[in-house]
Amino acid sequence: MKQAKFGTRSIWAGEKEQLAFGATQVPVVHSVSFGYDNMDEWYEVAIGNKEGHIYGRNTNPTVEAFENKIRDLEGAEAATSFSTGMAAISNTLSTFLAPGDRVVSIKDTYGGTNKIFTEFLPRMNVDVELCETADHEAIEAEVEKGCKVLYLETPTNPTVKITDIERMAKAGKAQGAIVIVDNTFATPVNQNPLDLGVDLVIHSATKFLGGHADALGGALVGSKELVEKVYHYREINGATLDPMAAYLLLRGMKTLKLRVDQQNKNAQEIAEYLKTFDLVEDVFYPGLEDHKNHDIAKKQMRGFGGMLSFAVKGGVETVRDFLPELQFANRAANLGAVETIVGPSRTTSHVECTPEERAAMGIPEGLIRYSAGIEDIEDLKADLKQAFAKVEEKASQKS
Ligand SMILES: *Cc1c(COP(=O)(O)O)cnc(C)c1O
């Protein structure tokens, strides 16, 4: 569906091949296995000479529709799927890394990814080098020492740092490394890393792709050669996407463009609005001109995304008073849903770190992560205003 535009493809891509009985919607195929009366046909499907399904851990029609949609939206040759975003990340890294190999990444990856780098890969004798996230020279210097995999995430969680994908892809390719980008925060609406030269793109479909905070899933897209290797690892190791989750994610993806366009707009306006409050110390959003790498973001993103974060004066205490006052926000660990979601970084993405570690990563104790929903912006702004007013009122009573 290359000829149609993104919004059209997000609705139509990947579905037609899986329709049955004249239904206009992809069915949820709840069948563990697929039967064959013809032994020769069964054999041909089993060895991959003929299209078809054998066993639900390997492939499933509903899951295949999800894979084909995300493949189309990222402009990739091939796609495979997983039970969660973390399964996509761990299975991909496990496919390509063996004892003695070296992987270069950044300090600001998603908390779970960071645990793979600091806890599990070293245990397998994989050498892990984590660089300052926005320090391109440092990453290039480590890549030049040689590495099997260069793993990136941009924008990052929670301080939305930006890495130059095209520049890093070039550096990685020069060393023959497999370059991987976690595109969860940007979504394919705003950024297509494959077009910027990377080999593989990963998504936690749990977030913006599904968009309704009701299904877990993960995806990997890239060349057929690389994706098939990871698919093989996944089909044997078993982190398969469930057909019901695949259906919910598919349904969510039909409105991906509508939702993310609105989230881009809301996040930009909220980021600018937050700067007008005395209680706000700092606002992080790649769409702000004073963001450290606003220029790189402008170059590689079509929109700046729905994620931002801000630091409040008074640290943890202000956070404790402020967050419960918000009426139109879930206080939760998730992100990328239609509802606005807020949470303190010390409780959500970086709960495993000590205050000192968080400080070293540039995460103040009073940092709040804000995942803009698709609500009317006037209501979101009024909500922030009344919540800040309540905190100030409480503070004046104390003094
Ligand atoms: C949530 C998230 C993940 C992990 O996804 P799960 O579906 O929760 O396993 C990975 N990367 C990023 C950037 C995320 O936000």
Describe the structure.
This is homocysteine desulfhydrase. This protein is of the alpha/beta class. It has 2 domains: 6-253, Type I PLP-dependent aspartate aminotransferase-like (Major domain) (Aspartate Aminotransferase, domain 2, 3-Layer(aba) Sandwich); 256-393, Aspartate Aminotransferase, domain 1, CATH 3.90.1150.10. The chain is built from 15 helices and 12 strands. The protein has helices spanning 6-12, 39-46, 61-73, 85-96, 111-123, 136-144, 165-174, 187-190, 224-237, 243-253, 256-274, 294-300, 315-322, 355-360, 377-398; strands spanning 78-82, 102-106, 127-131, 149-153, 178-182, 200-204, 218-222, 280-284, 307-312, 330-331, 341-344, 367-371. A 7-stranded mixed β-sheet has the order 1-7-6-5-4-2-3, with helices on both faces. Strand 5 (178-182), helix 8 and strand 6 (200-204) form a beta-alpha-beta unit. Helix 1 runs antiparallel to helix 3 and helix 4 (85-96) packs across helix 9 (224-237). The radius of gyration is 22 Å and the shape is globular. The N and C termini lie far apart (63 Å). The protein binds pyridoxal-5'-phosphate. Pyridoxal-5'-phosphate binds at residues 84-86, 110, 112, 153, 157, 182, 184-185, 204, 206-207, 216, 218. Pyridoxal-5'-phosphate is lined by residues 84-86, 110, 112, 153, 157, 182, 184-185, 204, 206-207, 216, 218.
